[in-house]
């Protein structure tokens, strides 16, 4: 389903809250030229790090690559483009893409390298960077459980980018650990409404 | 007591009751060990939990409960899971009372550089830029020097983390407060004299008449 | 069949399986009555629920489960509670497949005015501006005329709700599709001729050779 | 605690999800000159409508006043200033105030009266209105339940503006229907972390 060159928003923070079954499937199929949007590049052999090991990622938009020497090497060798984005800016850019806002006005990065090439707005005497929205062709999400309508619940620190990425891709695929009958998840427990989710694939036990 | 413990103990004194505190990975995370539990502090891990607790006993780790360094943690009673939008909403929105981070350089303006060494090491800023831009108090916890060179410099030569004056610098040798006038020496480390500090510091220091010893709790 | 039922029945034909649909208060809310339940449509109420169900039997109302008009509703299996940020995130972000709203005027550009009459009535736009700006399909469901005056006009004289061409206008007399070329008459209401519609419409209409009767399901 | 002229963010949508006990207390004390930020002006004698009946509101920032003839009359008579804001813009302006963003870039209102006097930015060929953040001196919230740390859960359509307003005021006062012991609300059920909440006051039975 995922073509060469697709932009993938993949949930997870150092692999916690990443859809490992979906990642393995992409590695198995060997779809390349991907743009990866994730908090980080994880570690070699783990989480989204597997996509980088396999040379499938042409461009990574992440906040951190420090714990992945393979990613460091590929970046320095010019084999993978890396756009480093402050974590809070990254999540707001994805949210802006998901909720139809034209950009993010953030104080983060003002006076640093992050400011380069970007528009700065002065609003009521304070300066803010204008950061552009990010959207994906696909969002690949980890979830604690779902129902068959696609309503999602997340677990502890496995929330991270997942609920926001669910808003910001043309096709949303969730990998819940369990799928429950419709009506079992109470409305107040739903963190991502099923109308946002196109496909669900249960995590293999 | 080794240098890192001195720093962690001294930073712990800055934590006031009821605060929401974010501790960076590495040295800053040691601070939690020296904050008394009766201070009712909530620790935030920016990957998504408020009310971070100690590492659980072996065999009781939960895969989905980690800190920002990826290490297993526990959650205290009253803890809350948050997603990244809420986590950084709290940080950028001024709801975080204090952040403690490591540093590569701090300069006379009080500006911090801690996220890259051009041509050598480009780990990325992670959450550091948001933390330094947004937290109410920013405390830099670091060794005074690295490879013989002072990390407290006239002007940062490394890329800045934020163009914001940090609140306090704590090293094993000194507590230094960046102010509008420059860096003010507030306390000396155990067994360290004002002269030792001046000699080990590349940046100009403003030295008040009375510089007490660090209180290590 | 009265005028409002004709409109509601015809709009219901636009609802496709699996859609997320927002119905405005008043006439638009009647549309739900004519959407077969096997179409697995989710209705959103912008005050905070996806999976709006029918009004519950008397005595079984829940104070905290209402629609955007403040009326008691129920929730279907698979419903989700959402806060206002998520609700309008869905609307503005293009996740809402269809919105059905009432109108005061629609003009030849397909622009809608439905939130105020200067000097007379200033209820406020509520969620209407976001709905019209953000929904994938915007359907205006309204009576063809008000107090003898056509509500379909060359150019809106009332303040616009959005500078966006709506997808379809459904009245008891006609189904009209705004296009780049202007307003195209697509269907005639029951017992209504093309001439009747032209006479009752102040705006210019593009009339194709064949204009079928409305399908009311 | 609330002084004359304070800016109050009050949760609720036509009175559903409003902190009724706190509203009654303000009416009883007769604190005036208030700025009210709410979805609407409710109905006379209900919810925030009581504050308007009592003449305590000098300025209302709301999306809708159509169901409150008292509010309409006071506005036309010049006794109460009303700023009408599209609902989605209103909630994002409050969120921006709460999460430290410089403003909101929204397509809503472009080409309408709402655009008047505001900056319009063209970003990648599309036009967006720059809308300013809103913050309050106090946020007064309704919640289903809390614990003694102040962690909040909300109920069904009583969520509305409450979770966002919890971020955007100097002092946050929540009115839960029940207060539970600490540890009873699981971390994944918390919608507003207790660190945001300054005071809790149980709804009188």
From TrEMBL, chains A, D:
Pfam families: CoA_trans
Domain of life where this protein originates: Bacteria
Keywords in alphabetical order: Transferase
A GO molecular function held by the record: CoA-transferase activity
InterPro entries recorded: 3-oxoacid_CoA-transf_A, CoA_trans_fam_I, NagB/RpiA_transferase-like
Signal sequence region: none
Keyword Transferase: yes
PANTHER family: ACETATE COA-TRANSFERASE SUBUNIT ALPHA, KETOACID-COENZYME A TRANSFERASE
Name of this protein: Acetate CoA/acetoacetate CoA-transferase alpha subunit
Native organism: Rhodovulum steppense
TrEMBL record, chains B, C:
Family annotation (InterPro entries): 3-oxoacid_CoA-transf_B, CoA_trans_fam_I, NagB/RpiA_transferase-like
GO-annotated molecular function: CoA-transferase activity
Keyword Oxidoreductase in annotation: no
Pfam families named in the record: CoA_trans
Signal sequence segment: none
Keywords: Transferase
The keyword Transferase is assigned to this record: yes
Family, as annotated: Belongs to the 3-oxoacid CoA-transferase subunit B family.
Protein name (record): Acetate CoA/acetoacetate CoA-transferase beta subunit
